[in-house]
Amino acid sequence: MEYNFKEIEQKWRQFWEDNQTFKTDINHNKPKYYVLDMFPYPSGAGLHVGHPLGYIASDIIARYKRLKGFNVLHPMGFDSFGLPAEQYAIQTGQHPAITTEENINTYIRQLKQIGFSYDWSREVRTSEPNYYKWTQWIFMQLFNHYYDKNANKALKISSLIEFFAESGNKTVNAVCDEDTAIFTAEEWNLMGEEQQQKVLLKYRLTFPDESVVNWCPGLGTVLANDEVKDGVSERGGFPVEQKKMKQWAMRITAYADRLIDGLNEVDWSDALKEQQRNWIGRSTGASVRFSVFDARSSGQNSEDLPQTSKNEHRTSIEVFTTRVDTIYGVSFMVIAPELDSVPSLTTSEQKEAVDEYIKWVASRTELDRMSEVKKVSGVFTGSYVINPFNNEKIPIYLADYVLAGYGTGAVMGVPSGDQRDWNFAKHFNLPIVPILDAQKDMDEQADNTKEGKYINSGMINGLTYKEATKVLTDFLEEKGIGKGKIQYRLRNAVFSRQRYWGEPVPVYFKGDLPYLIEESELPLTLPVIDKYLPTETGEPPLGRAEGWKYQGEYEYELSTMPGWAGSSWYWYRYMDAHNENEIASPEAINYWKAVDLYIGGSEHATGHLLYSRFWNKFLKDLGLVPEEEFAKKLINQGMIQGRSNFVYRLKSSEGQGKNPIFISYGLKDKYEVTDLHVDVNIVSNEILDIEAFRNWQPDYKNAEFILEETGSNQGKYICGVEIEKMSKRWYNVVNPDTLVDKVGADTLRLYEMFLGPLEQAKPWNTNGIDGSFRFIKKTWRLFYDDLGNFKVKDETPNPAELKVLHACIKKVEEDLERYSFNTVVSTLMICVNELGALKCSKKAILQELVILMSPYTPHISEELWTLLGNKAGTISYAQFPKFNPVYLVEANFEYPISINGKVRANISFPTDALPSDIEAGVLANEIVQKWLEGKAPKKVIVVPKRIVNVVR
RNA sequence: GCCCGGAUGGCGGAAUUGGUAGACGCGCUGGUCUCAAACACCAGUGUCUUCAUUGGCAUGCCGGUUCGACUCCGGCUCCGGGUACCA
After folding, report:
1. CA A910, CA A95: separation in Å to the nearest integer?
2. What single string gives the DSSP state of each residue in A94-140?
3. Which residue in A271, A335, A831, A834 has the fewest CB atoms around it within 10 Å?
4. Is-contact A323 A419, C-beta < 8 A?
5. Crossing angle of helices A157-167/A193-201, nearest 10°?
């Protein structure tokens, strides 16, 4: 009987389906374990061979943990809102829901084929109203909460309202907009409803915010920072520009400290944690307020005054600096051209130049700006500020190297201590004042070191960096013109997208003010629209929905939520996927708690993984979830890159009607050739299947080939290789369906794990898959002889066989516990090879081998399990074999050798060479004496028997 | 520029705590089976030297610590990822 994977895999897929084998329920008698994959966006291309890599690993852990007696939650779902389905809708008019549904069906079929042990009854789809109802509900909670710094958590906005009514906001220590004014209880109570609501928006954790955002005209929507790569949109690669717009924002900055601190308690890779820390970018420094030089009071010509300054000119500019110690070196101030205060700081003489500069800055895209980083540009505003430490008059410039979005959008320029400031000063001929005695060559470049004593620095002359910083900060605080401050790079997250295919925001507007719809009216479902494009007046697509008004009267919010909304809490929905009254029942949440193992790509480091941590912390503040961090352990599987093959067409054979001639790789340099991609599926070990190639494309039907002339590949056509992204147009996409059809799902699973360490990025290469297939066939032969007779006997195993088995058990268990998936495959292969060599077909051995293999090769393992007479479909519950060390007799005993009281060496002997410890000690001594001859040690002591080093 | 990884045979990779470097697989070579091929099986396979034994050299480069270094330390080179006028 042949190993017939098609039949076997089909049979067990059906069995699992019929018996709902992987359905999981709460079970308080078992420890729980939650293994989660990052759910995919169901794209139209279906799964390629890279997708399942992480899923296979997580499935192995899920199956392993079940074998160890855990109650395992292992779900799968779909992040089904997103741009591609909507882009497709724009082109074809097909509703994105239909496209999405079709794609999901393909995904499910492919996933089931590979034999994942998901509990499909818990599947979630973020684009289903019964799911996004709860995404909207969480949004409403964010709107209804503010962040209290004293309690260090989110609290109800209603309690803030009560507090305002009683004591105003002066003593409130909460995260709010920088420009929030102080008011008393009396003033609060005198405010109208509208005024009060406006104030509250400054505190709410989600709020409409007028800010500089990444606007992508190509996609017609704003994007978050993590959705922009190198100045273009991550999806589609369209240019992105900076634009000031009113958008929903999430006050993620309120959680900045907790997001940094929480990283210490999770088992994630250092690289990823570091990436998040950098993204949050906590920097310690000080804020300093510079008062604007008032020309009137100093008796200057009033024509010089800023034009709009009559009533509302700014009296001071605040900057943030990490180097307050350099304050005496300030020779100019730079502010971002986008700031509101620019006009009020511009004098009439400079107005023309300033306007021109602002226009120029606005005309540049992110990409332009980034590529011209080195170029100095800027313009003088005509105004000055006063350095509070030495009362010097300092000119204010505009320059686009200062970002409106970071700090206050204003920077003090210290050319001696900062290279960019130095460049700027050189360009505009501003003074460069050395402030440390160690600074000499100010003509060449800035010196940002903190070594030496201060000079030219008033009150800090002669002090060191540490002393100076303290003196200055104290002075600032005493005078009330500044203070020590912690600044974050992290911005509040933009939460609107001007697109159709996303969660509607459950908000309507009365005039300018947003109000939440009633909770009982959730979900607010997507309305039907005629076209998936912005309206003629430039409103988002939802503006097309006819009669879509709250209570028939008020405008709904027309933008939708961003892609990360639905994915920021989905792991809770799996716990209780069909709950209609809550995100999930408290019972379920308190049982499953948090994700024990999360597997997915590192590309989500500063997006999904950060937002999810943020929402999780918020949900914890609400008392809805028990854990501060949602994923205890995270593994980033490496990306699978494409591996393209090339053929080389002779240039003279190109053109209409000519017979194409192809030159083999080894000879191509002798001819003029064109490199052409060839379908990797008709190339094996770089050898082209010529027949298949001729049939591949009609043009090649009569192709001729110049083959290798020498070496082991003589007479073959060899293709070239390059590593590229997996993409249809390079013909390098390897589809799991094809492989499952050729060698079966078990082989595919085994092979993907065998490729190398999970975390490592690697090109896909089907070359070695035969080895995995062979391993499975060898396993099969332990059960059947050449004639197809079942040969397993119920006999007592001998020590040699037990030794092979137990060595395998030990290694498999150790490696799985440290997530070393590839070495497990090697171990299993060794075990099968050795059992084959021993001609071992004993039931006691084989049934344990089958269990060891089952996480990797579920289908054939289930089949063999039944063949061994065990009940069908039951390799599940606490059956992982026990490691029995008795049979690991062949060990090395190690002898540490001391010379002059210090352990200098270890010598080890296999036990079978050692009749006794004493003899071993003597032997070791003799060897050491010989070995050390000439080195003349005073005394050599051998301490017998220490450690047992297990060898196979 | 800054931060984080990595570099081991022809190839993918192993070596878990400083202790036999190259497990396992691919490929290749030879053999068995076959009329022949494919499949399968068996053996060999870092490199130099040698008929062979043996021996020398080998984990990107230079140096250090150690009885002993792929592993630890210092200094480079190259590759990959992240991030960027972040004040």
Report:
1. 71
2. --HHHHHHHHHHHHHHHHHHHT----GGG--BTTSHHHHHHHHHHHH
3. A271
4. no
5. 120
A271 touches strand B (CB under 7 A): yes
Nucleotide nearest to A377 (CA to C1'): B85
Measured CA A642 to C1' B10 distance, in angstroms: 21
A727 beta carbon to strand B: under 7 Å: no
Cβ(A605)–Cβ(A275) below 8 Å: yes
DSSP at A880 = P
For strand B, list residues 771-800 of chain A whose Cβ lies within 7 Å of it.
771-775, 777-778
How far: A936 CA to B53 C1' (Å)? 33
- Asked if residues A230 and A367 have their Cβ atoms less than 8 Å apart, the reply is yes
pLDDT in tens, A465-520: 888 999 999 999 998 888 888 889 888 888 999 999 999 999 999 988 999 999 99
| Cα gap A435→A910, rounded to integer Å | 70
- Contact (Cβ atoms closer than 8 angstroms) between residue A131 and residue A125: yes
**Listed residue (A860, A872, A776, A876) closest to A9, CA to CA:** A860
Mean pLDDT, all residues of chain A: 85
Q: Is the CB of A274 under 7 A from strand B?
A: yes
Distance between alpha carbon A126 and the CA centroid of its chain, in Å? Answer: 19
Is the CB of residue A412 inside 7 Å of nucleic acid strand B? yes
Cα–Cα dist A346/A359, whole Å: 15
Give φ, ψ of A352 to 5 degrees: -60, -50
Q: Is the CB of A281 under 7 A from strand B?
A: yes
Residue A833 CB closer than 7 angstroms to strand B?
yes
Q: Which two tokens stand for residue A866?
A: 């039944």
Amino acid sitting at position A643? R
d(CA A53, CA A753): 7
Structure tokens at A606: 């500063």
CA distances, A445 to each of A371, A422, A489, A565, A841 (Å): 22, 7, 27, 47, 77
Which residue is closest to B39 in terms of CA–C1' distance?
Answer: A774
Q: Which amino acid is at A929?
A: Q
The pTM assigned to this predicted structure is 0.88
8 Å CB contact between A856 and A753: yes
Dist CA A256 CA A482 (whole Å): 22
Distance, in Å, from the CA atom of A797 to the CA atom of A782, rounded to the nearest integer, reads: 14
- Residue-wise pLDDT tens digits, A674-721: 888 888 888 877 788 888 888 888 888 888 888 877 666 667 788 877
State how far the Cα of A683 lies from the Cα of A702, in Å rounded to an integer: 19
A403 Cβ nearer than 7 Å to chain B strand = yes
Token code pair at residue A549? 């008004």
Sign (positive/negative) of CA torsion A104, A107, A113, A119? negative
Alpha-carbon separation of residue A745 from A2, A8, A58, A752, A895 (angstroms): 17, 10, 16, 10, 48
Question: What are the C-alpha distances in Å from A372 to residues A231, A362, A368, A377?
Answer: 13, 15, 6, 10
| pLDDT beyond 90 at A374 | no
List the nucleotides on chain B closer than 7 A to a protein CB. 3-5, 12-16, 19-20, 23-29, 40-42, 66-67, 80-87
Q: Three-class SS of residue A43?
A: coil
Find all residues with CB under 8 Å of A503, minimum gap 6, and list them.
A81, A126, A132, A135, A136, A139, A560, A561, A565, A566
Tell me: cis bond preceding A797? Omega within 30 of 0 counts.
Answer: no
Model pLDDT for residues A877-897, shown as the tens digit of each residue = 678 888 775 444 344 445 555
Instruction: Find the Å distance, CA of residue A275 to C1' of nucleotide B84.
Output: 13
Q: Using an 8 Å Cβ cutoff, are A640 and A667 in contact?
A: no
